[in-house]
Write a structure and sequence with these properties.
- This protein is of the alpha+beta class.
- The protein has one domain: Translation Initiation Factor IF3.
- It has 3 helices and 4 strands, in the order E-H-E-H-E-E-H.
- The chain has a 4-stranded mixed beta sheet with strand order 1-2-4-3, with helices on one face.
- The termini are far apart.
Length: 97
């Protein structure tokens, strides 16, 4: 899967939304390649590392970068899932109140 998010346009898709779709579509061990500005590449790198994906290559030149990432077989444990759900629930209550 190759994506260029086109950072230059004023109306850019939400990076979190794009990454959620990539996570849904990409099969384990699949490769995801992105070419964009270094700020976007940095954000993507943080997101994929939090998902326990493997960064295979990152390269930058003149403010533009390329990153190649491989999706891992990692799944959250039951404890990680419960902890995450509780944190989300607390944040939701703070927003409502």
């Amino acid at each position: 899967m190759l994506i260029h998010l086109f950072s230059a346009p004023k109306k850019r898709c939400s990076l979190v939304s794009v990454m959620a779709e990539v996570e849904r579509i990409l099969r384990p061990q699949g490769t995801f390649i992105v070419r964009d500005d270094m700020e976007t590449i940095g954000e993507i790198e943080k997101m994929v590392k939090s998902l326990k994906w493997n960064v295979r290559m990152a390269h930058s030149k003149d403010g533009e970068g390329v990153i190649s990432v491989q999706k891992s077989l990692w799944c959250p444990t039951e404890i990680e899932t419960i902890t995450s759900a509780k944190a989300s629930e607390r944040n939701w209550f703070n927003i409502v109140l």
